[in-house]
Structures are given as C-alpha cells and as structure tokens.
cellulase (Catellatospora chokoriensis), 652 residues
Amino acid sequence: MALSRKAGIRRRLRIPLALATLATTLAAGAAVLAPTTAAAAVPEKDWLHVQGNKVVDEAGNEVWLTGVNWFGFNASERVFHGLWSGNITTITKGMADRGINLVRVPISTQLLLEWKNGQTVAAPNVNTYANPELAGKNNLQIWDYWLQLCEQYGIKVMLDVHSAEADNSGHIHPVWWKGTITVEQFYQAWEWVTNRYKTNDTIVAMDIKNEPHGTPNSPPRAKWDNSTDQDNFKYACETAGRRILAINPNVLILCEGIEVYPRPGETWSSPNTDPDLTPNYFYNWWGGNLRGVRDYPVNLGANQDQLMYSPHDYGPLVYEQPWFQGTFDKTTLTNDVWRPNWLYIHENGTAPLLIGEWGGRLGQDARQDKWMTALRDLIVQYRLHQTFWVLNPNSGDTGGLLLDDWATWDTTKYNLLKPALWQHQGKFVSLDHQVRLGGATSTTGYHLADVYGGGGTGGDTIAPSAPGNPSVTGVTSSSVSLSWGAATDNVGVTAYEVYRAGTKVATVSGLTYTDTGLSASTAYQYTVRARDAAGNISAASAAVTGTTSGGGGGGGSGCTATLRVTGSWQGGMQGEVTVTNTSTMTSAAWSVVLNIPATLTISNLWNGNRTGNTVTNAPHNGSLAPSTSTTFGFVASGSGTVTVTSCAIAVP
C-alpha cells in the first residue's frame, strides 16, 4: 500500500472498516485487445515475455495483465485475510468471474525464510466452518491449495515481497533489509520460492520489493543510481532479478520506483530541504518515482525481455499531494505527475508498465473520484497493466472491492474498475491458453486460445475507422509535431501509423507524434492510419501539411543556442537548449532569449533561471571556456513549440 512521505501517515490493514455510501456509478465499458497475428500453435505453457512496451505470450500474442491485490500472507497472520469469514473458493471464483486475470499477493521475506526452513503456521486464522476445504492445512498448504484454485479458474499470480518482516505495518519500513533479515537473505528467499515453483506457470511474475522509499536525511532510505551500494534499489532489483532468472528465465520481473530522485544539478548527497522552498529532489508516492530509469535503466542481462516497471499511484484521500491542490484533471496529472515519473517509460518503448497499486474510496471526495477515473482512463488509453488495490475491505485508507462480509462486491467501485479489465467480444480474457477465466464451464470468460486461434472464437477481420483529422501542433526548423483524433474499432485500436508523403515513418500508441530530422523551410504532408491488434489497418486520415521554420539556432554576442525537442506529447513538450561559447574568451555568464507562444506555459526548467522569455545561467554553468557548451532543459504544457531567438555571453 502506498504511503506519502509524511512520517505521521500510517496504514491500518487489519481493522475492518465499514465502507461509506458510494455515490458514483459508472457504466461498464469494454477495454480489449485482439489477435496480433494469424492463429499460431497454442503454447503449452503460459509464460509471458516483453517486447518493447508490450507483454506477449510464447507465440508472440499481446496480453493484458489486469487484476487486483489480496493481502494477508505478508502480515502477522501469514495467511490471506478474510478467511476468518469468507470462503476461499467462492472469493477466488468471484474474482475470475468478474475479470480478474492476475492477483498480486503481498508476502514477506520472513515468511519465505520460514517456509524455506520448514516452519509453517499449523492453525492459521481461518474459519474452517466457512472453509471446510482448508481443514487441517497449515499456511503453506493453504497457499498451495489456492494456487490450484487459480489454475482451475484461469487466474495467474504475481508474488510481491511487501516487507522484510511478517508485520501488519511492515511496509512502512523503507528498505528490503531489517533486523536479522539481511540483504543476502532477501535474495535467498526469492531464490527459494522461485525454485519451488519454477515449473508452475500459475506464478508468472515477481514484484521484487513493495514501495522502497525514504528521504536522504532519514536513513535508511532507498536511492536509484548506478552504484552497488546496499541502499541502491536499482542494484537490488537487478541482483534479485538475475538470481531469480538464473532459476526460472521465464518469469516476469517487476521493479517498482522509489520516493525521491535528485533534481538536475543535485546528487544523493544534497540536503533534503523542504521541497516547497528549495527543491533538491523530485517527490512522489512511495514506489512511484521511476525518474531514475531514464539515466539508469535496470539491466537483467540476457533476460532483459522479462523486465517490467511497476509504479504506485494514489488519490487525495490517501495523502494531499501538491498536485491535488487547486484545479487538476487527467491532462495536468499526465503532464505534471505521471509522464515525468513513469509514463515516459511506456511512451518511449523502454519497457511495459504495471500499475501495481491504485484505488481508493468513492463518493467521499469529488477530487478522489476525479483522480481515480482519470487514472483508470489512462490505463485503458495506453493498455497499461494494473493490479487494483485492493480486494480486502479491511484496508483502512482505501476500502476494497469486497464489503465487510467478504462476500458482497462493491458494485460502484467494481464498475469503475471494469473497463480496465481485459475483455474480448463481451467476455473476460484469462492469461491461460487452456483454461477460461472462470473455469471450464465459464460463460463469461475466454482463454488465450479462444482469442488467438485454436478455440474457434477468435479471428478479428474488421479494420478500425480512420483516425480523426490530424493537425499540426508545432514546428521547428527540423521538426513537425502532429496530433489527431482517436479511431474506433469493434475490438480495440492498439497503435497508429504515421505516414510522411506516403511512407510510414512511425508507429505510436498515443494520439501525437513529432517528426524530427527534417529540413528547414520545407513543407511535409502527413496522414495517419489506425491498427488493431489483429493487424487490421484503417483507411488513411485526411492529409495535413506542416512547414518547418527557417534554419539555425539563436545567435548573438559570442554564443549560439540550439534547441532540441527531446519529447513531445498531446498537451506538452520537453526541450533541451545547448549553449556554446563561440568567442575567444571564457564567459562569466550567458543569457538566452526564447520565443514562447502564448499557447505554451513552461512549468519546469533546470540548469538555468528564467525571467519571462529570458533564461540566464545557473551558478554552476555560467563559466564557459571558448568552444565549450552547457545545456538547460524545460518542460512546457500546452500547444505549439518553443524556439530560440538569441543568445549572448558576458565576459569578465
């Protein structure tokens, strides 16, 4: 469960709380994928792999992991919560019937080490009157019994080391070692559980550590860099991942984010000053800060195709983050929070994302409802993988999909989640090739062979509609930025192909693209086509022409400044300006004048100081020897693009 960085916030996972009246009702929608290729032989095993930002089965068919969390094995009870009143079979089949194809199960390193050493809980907190099938079973036997239920109902499982110790508040500890549990034991626990289930393709993913976090002035804390330091979570995730994959090279490895990351020009040694006054670090939810991936991506060696990243995100009822103050919506959350912290990983094609925790109560705060709907819509828009927090009604900050009786489903909350569950032709899709989601007799679920051939119900042959008319949203001397309207499809659009003068130049998942490397003062014509996962291609959109501006960067007194667009999206851009000293003397300072259209707002700028349209050097980069350069960067929200007008230096 995610926590804010404020030390006073605590979770109460064990105390059942009555859910408040829920007032928001959403119509259930359909969020679907379809066959990517012609029917291939149905794989015997259900192991999953990574291709770019997609997850595919062993035949190369794209899949969508859409599920929920169920905690308890991580806590002091060392068994699923809710079995004190609910029935394990009923709960599990209820998840499958409602479209849950993956369950993220929090566990603890301590629990795995106990099992490794032959220690079990002989009589866990289970009502055997409600669960006669569990009578006489210890907690490890209950776990194995539940895995068999998952196999029976077509559900896959992801293990998540939620804490070092088996403690109901263990997730509050910021790192993956604690007390007598060492880092080496953390790795050994993962190796033990991997080896025990290495041939069981019900467990398809392993989330290395839940919500590593902490701030620099409150050790221990998790950082992200290229070191082999004990507190470097990137190194810990790589090490655990490689040791797991040496045993089972087919299991997915998930690496979460951390809490803070140094801003440009800062280091992990910078003081942790108040971020609202002197921002030395970017802050986010525990586990939600994946900014470090841009500079230091996780390297799993020969098994890089098993890597996913897994941020967490929550709403204002969990903690009043700065971005919830004032007016916000899906666009501002995307530009200000989600994209810079983790969405860029998907957009750049680096790796797939699985939102490991998101959720909360509905009907108590309009802003909370707005946030949850916005994130749900982002998940559906980009087909991001996700596991909703949580099934349990006894999650104090969020409530659950089940009500306090552990039998009744919260229909309002479920209806909000339902569009983010994988559906095909009106049925839910499992990640199993032989077992339909819901079991052999299910009337509400498909298995992968049904969808991708071999089951008789696949074979999508209907092409999407043409995309909405494209428009030019910005130009530079070497680039043209485009946006267009979404296409529709009977199953689901998965990509857009961008054509320049009839030649395909890009395939993107969103509704924007920036074509770069163009000639100055030149007209270029573009069209866009939509593609579904079966490979059906739409007719072309209407054509649009973009004309690049005149060449050259800003020149002036003793320097040049050249702008490079490093990222663009619907509603914003990121740029980098290279300032070069062209004089024969070392500069004492420099300044660059930008042309910022009224339709754009610069929301963040680093390695420089901006006043209006003028950017001057930061204290550390004003001195430039002849022919040397420095850079500053910025993020801008809105439409259009920033250009450079002039550059000047001052000499001693």
User: Anything to note?
Assistant: The first strand starts at residue 49 and ends at 51. The CA atoms of residues 121 and 539 lie 62 Å apart.
